[in-house]
Design brief:
Elements lengths: L1 H33 L2 H65 L4 E11 L8 H13 L4 E4 L2 E2 L6 E4 L3 E4 L2 E3 L3 E6 L2 H9 L4 H7 L3 E12 L15
Antiparallel strand pairs: 1-7, 1-8, 2-3, 2-7, 4-5, 5-6
C-alpha cells in the first residue's frame, strides 16, 4: 500500500513536470509565431539602406575629389604644354633674333661679289658701302666683307687710301662681299642697266660676281654695344 502511494506521487510529479514543460514549449512557440518577422526584415532593410546611403555619400565624395583632381591634372598638363609651347616660341624668337643680329653662322642661296683694285683706281669704303646698301634693299638677310659679318653697328671706313676698316679690323683688296637672300633679286639689284656694276666699271674698278646656291656667312665675332642709346 505504501509502495503504491509512492508510485502514484511519482507519476503525478512526472506528469506535472511534463505539463509545465509542455506549457513552456507552447508559450515559446506562440511567442515566436506572434513575432513580427516583417518588422525584423524592415529593420534590417533600414539598416542596409542607411549603410548604402553612407557608402553612396562616400562614393560621391570620392568621385567629386577624383573629378577635381583630374581637372587639376588636366590644367597642369595644359600649363605644361603651354609653357613648353611658349618656351619653344621664345627659343625660336631668340634664335631668330640672334640670326638677324648676326650672332650665328648662316647658310643659304645668294650672291658673291669681288671688288679689286686696278692700276688706275683703288676700291674705297664708299664703294663697298654702296654695294652693301644695294644688297640690303634687295632683301639680303646676311652680308659679310672678307668674312667679317656686317651688322647694324658695323663701320666701313677708309684709313687713308691703304686699307678699309670693317668691325674695327683692317681688310684689304680684293674685297669679297657675300650676301644671302633671294639670288635672283640680289643679282637683278646690282646688274640692272645703269646700276651698281655699271657704276663700278665706270670707275675702272674690277668687279666680278657669281650667283650661288649655297653660301656660308660666319657669325659676328665682335661685341655689339650702343654708345649713345640708353634704356628709357
Amino acid at each position: 500500500m505504501q509502495m503504491k502511494k509512492g508510485r502514484n506521487v511519482m507519476i503525478i510529479s512526472i506528469g506535472a513536470i511534463a505539463l509545465i514543460l509542455t506549457m513552456v514549449i507552447f508559450i515559446q512557440f506562440k511567442t515566436v509565431k506572434e513575432t513580427d518577422i516583417t518588422a525584423i526584415e524592415t529593420m534590417r532593410e533600414a539598416e542596409l539602406r542607411t549603410e548604402l546611403s553612407s557608402w553612396k555619400a562616400k562614393y560621391d565624395e570620392i568621385s567629386a575629389k577624383l573629378e577635381e583632381t583630374e581637372d587639376k591634372i588636366s590644367n597642369y598638363r595644359n600649363d605644361i604644354e603651354n609653357n613648353e609651347k611658349n618656351s619653344k616660341l621664345l627659343d625660336q624668337e631668340y634664335a631668330d633674333t640672334e640670326k638677324y643680329l648676326g650672332y650665328t653662322d648662316v647658310q643659304g642661296e645668294g650672291i658673291q661679289v669681288v671688288l679689286d683694285d686696278t692700276e688706275y683706281k683703288q676700291v674705297q669704303s664708299s664703294d663697298i658701302l654702296s654695294l652693301v646698301n644695294e644688297l640690303r634693299l634687295a632683301g639680303a638677310e646676311a652680308i659679310s666683307i672678307n668674312d667679317e659679318r656686317v651688322v647694324s653697328t658695323t663701320e666701313i671706313v677708309n684709313v687713308d687710301t691703304r686699307f678699309v676698316i670693317v668691325n674695327g679690323k683692317r681688310v684689304v683688296a680684293p674685297f669679297t662681299i657675300k650676301a644671302i637672300g633671294d639670288k635672283k633679286y640680289l643679282e637683278s639689284a646690282i646688274s640692272i642697266k645703269g646700276g651698281y656694276i655699271d657704276e663700278i666699271k665706270a670707275k675702272e674698278i674690277t668687279i666680278n660676281y657669281s650667283v650661288e646656291d649655297k653660301l656660308t656667312i660666319n657669325k659676328f665675332s665682335g661685341k655689339m654695344s650702343l654708345q649713345n642709346a640708353k634704356e628709357k
